[in-house]
């Protein structure tokens, strides 16, 4: 099947990490619907939201551990082999939540969060930039979190620190690669209904959403639509931003 000739990402090749997860799956589905071809990269071949059978002809799976540069090289090579070009869009959703407050967290907790969430983002950017430079343009979209990028969160010490870190790596990329035609933006979601939030809710969610200006949990598509805007040429003057999508959670005191 050939790529769609129309859509907001017509003709583009994207790499979506964490592509078998809640947000990554929604992103890669929406991108294909908008004309992109997508390398879906994840450490898991199947999750409760996606499996190899759910992939479309314009998606190809790459087994990727974000901590391993060789695994990034394979994902980029697969893009060249299957789609004839390196990705000029990266949506980096792969990440882990590590639960624990400051007194109970261990060095190991911090190392795990930093290895996957911060060093993973560092490897992501080092891996995609050469192909984007070759193409003369690129858009990097990194999933951070309102936790860390905007606020601390009691009970999520290592996770918050790592999410502050991956947002900083992304903003630095915006500064260092802007003159190569490469934009880099961070998305900072509030609570989104995915396996991560279901398994890892650090707080009792029963009354969590009620006081928010938009009192509901986020859906993966709420985030995917923002990723689409940031990935597409519609955001051609947008770089170095932290795009908050949280139903007003961090707007102020409520
Ligand atoms: N769900 C939320 O409430 C929420 C809120 C704020 C930010 N985020 C961020 O959004 C991103 C996506 O999260 P999600 O909610 O879809 O979670 P998810 O757990 O559904 O998806 C995360 C995916 O990352 C993959 N992954 C984990 N470690 C990996 C590794 N070493 N290499 C490659 N892939 C790996 C997992 O296999 C999984 O498919 C994460 O970075 C997360 O921190 C989520």
Short description, anyone?
The protein has 254 residues and is α/β, with parallel strands linked by helices.
**The biggest beta sheet, please?**
7 strands, parallel
- Element-level helix/strand string: EHEEHEHEHHEHHE
Query: Which fold name is given in CATH as the topology?
Result: Rossmann fold
How far apart, in Å, are the first and last alpha carbons?
51 Å
Task: Write down the Rg.
Answer: 17 Å
Q: Quick one: overall form?
A: globular
Percent in strands: 5-15%
Number of strands: 7
| CATH architecture classification | 3-Layer(aba) Sandwich
User: Strands of the biggest beta sheet: in what spatial order?
Assistant: 3-2-1-4-5-6-7
Q: Name the average pLDDT.
A: 95
Q: What structural class do you assign from the helix and strand content?
A: alpha/beta
Total helical elements: 7
Please, how many domains?
Answer: 1
Taking pLDDT < 50 over at least 5 consecutive residues as the criterion, the unreliable ranges are none
Fourth-level CATH superfamily: NAD(P)-binding Rossmann-like Domain
Q: Given this structure, which CATH class is correct?
A: Alpha Beta
Give a list of the ligands.
nicotinamide-adenine-dinucleotide
InterPro entries: KR_dom, NAD(P)-bd_dom_sf, SDR_fam
Family: Belongs to the short-chain dehydrogenases/reductases (SDR) family.
EC number: 1.1.1.-
Enzyme class: oxidoreductase
